[in-house]
Write a structure and sequence with these properties.
Elements (H helix, E strand, L loop, with lengths): L10 H8 L20 E4 L10 H15 L4 E4 L9 H7 L3 E8 L5 E9 L2 E5 H5 L17 H12 L4 E5 L10 H6 L3 E4 L15 E5 L11 E6 L11 H5 L7 H18 L12 H13 L2 E4 H9 L1 H6 L3 E9 L8 H11 L4 E8 L3 H7 L3 E4 L7 H6 L1 H17 L2
Parallel strand pairs: 1-2, 1-11, 5-6, 6-9, 9-10, 11-12, 12-13
Antiparallel strand pairs: 3-4, 4-5, 7-8
Protein name: Glycerate kinase
Keywords: Kinase, Transferase
Pfam family, one: Gly_kinase
Length: 407
């Protein structure tokens, strides 16, 4: 690239084109005078079902560099507390730790958490997620979060004293009962016997004794990171809203809601029943809040801190975010909107890439995203689009680069 003030290779031209208002493709947002290359931050979530957040960043970068080879690019995969949270932490420099824990059906599974110093990132789906169920198999009444408790214990054993518990993608609706049991709680029926695993058997719960919980928890900060704020019970609760996704019939939903209510009565913490996040991931949010003394925070907010998003944003002239589907759910605590809002607060323009786009330009603008580029613009057939997501994402990023950096 050429250099010189006001020429195509200069900081002025690079940053002006980086900050182009791509919604109309004509007018630069701002001008800059300092001499250094335009800096792009790729801060995208996974494309669920096709690409991890790490893979998304790699393919976007490849597409950008196919058009502007010398572009300064920094990648920081992000997550909102659900699937992909541990991968995002590892990409940001955390160490990947693998342990064998109890899966949602009671059989052993391999699960991963992330550790850096005395901070751990634990993703409950790694131990208790739908991914561990055979295709077409659900266990809405009996699936357990016991393995998530084992994963937390492994983090404690490794020296963690701050644990971020990311929840989402669970196969369970047991209110976190299994998790608490794995950490030393005793949940007993009227005859003094331990209740069976799962949410359904909680209907027979008589007493909950938390006195045996791992004593290290008292000196550990547990942060419940979630993108949902549902209560534990009722029409917006864990069973009613998320139970059907886990195979629960209407009868099962009613039974699970009643059983979770009994669980809350036994734990004696009614205040946490309606607390934001209590209904997250089959009610594990309630178990974390009431049993572990966790603090609820929006997942994207927590992950920004853990991943070092703020300093990365300070180094950027343009941010590219995205996820598999930009739709109404994106507007409610999902990573791309969190990224866009943080960037807008610093006056940094944001573009997005996605597999499918279901938001109007006006809605995108209101969320802080100047323009979104969808893979379905290149391949409208959704199954083919998902199957060829990597190639299509690189091609889409190349289109974005030509629109943004070439005058």
């Amino acid at each position: 690239m050429r250099s010189g003030h006001g020429r195509p290779g200069s900081r002025r031209d690079r940053v002006a084109t980086a900050r182009r208002t791509v919604s109309d493709g004509e007018h630069p947002v701002s001008d800059a005078a300092t001499e250094s290359p335009a800096r792009v931050l790729i801060a995208a979530d996974k494309f669920k079902g096709s690409l991890t957040a790490v893979e998304v960043a790699a393919h976007v970068e490849a597409g950008l560099r196919s058009v502007v080879p010398a572009l300064s690019v920094e990648s920081l995969p992000v997550a909102d507390g659900g699937d992909g949270t541990v991968d995002a932490a590892v990409a940001a420099g955390f160490e990947r730790r693998t342990v064998t824990v109890t899966g949602p059906l009671g059989t052993p599974v391999e699960a991963v958490y992330a550790l850096r110093g005395d901070t751990a990132v634990v993703e409950m789906a790694e131990a208790s997620g739908l991914r561990h169920l055979p295709p077409g198999v659900f266990a809405p009444l009996t699936a357990t979060t016991y393995g998530t408790g084992e994963l937390l214990r492994a983090a404690l054993d490794a020296g963690a004293r701050t644990i971020v518990l990311g929840v989402g993608g669970s196969a369970t609706t047991d209110g976190g009962a299994g998790m608490l049991t794995a950490l030393g709680a005793r949940l007993l029926d009227a005859s003094g016997q331990p209740v069976s695993p799962g949410g359904g058997p909680l209907a027979g719960l008589a007493t909950a004794d938390l006195g045996g919980l791992d004593p290290r928890l008292a000196d550990t900060e547990i942060v419940l990171a979630s993108d949902v704020d549902n209560p534990l019970l009722g029409p917006k609760g864990a069973a009613a809203v998320y139970g059907p996704q886990k195979g629960a019939s209407p009868v099962d939903v009613e039974a699970l809601d009643a059983a979770l209510g009994r669980f809350a009565e036994a734990l004696g913490d009614q205040r946490s029943v309606d607390a934001p996040g209590a209904g997250a991931a089959g009610g594990i949010g309630y178990g974390a809040l009431a049993g572990l003394g966790a603090t609820f925070r929006p997942g994207i907010e927590v992950l920004f801190e853990v991943l070092g998003f703020g300093p990365a944003l300070e180094r950027a002239d343009l941010v590219i975010t995205g996820e598999g589907s930009l739709d109404e759910q994106t507007l409610h605590g999902k990573a791309p909107v969190g990224v866009a809002q943080a960037a807008r607060a610093r006056g940094i323009p944001v573009l997005a890439v996605c597999g499918r786009l279901a938001l109007s330009p006006e809605t995108l603008q209101a969320a802080g995203i100047r323009r979104a580029y969808a893979l379905t613009d290149l391949e409208p057939d959704l199954p083919r689009c998902i199957a060829n997501a990597a190639e299509l994402l690189e091609a889409t990023a190349a289109v974005l680069a030509r629109d943004t950096f070439l005058v």
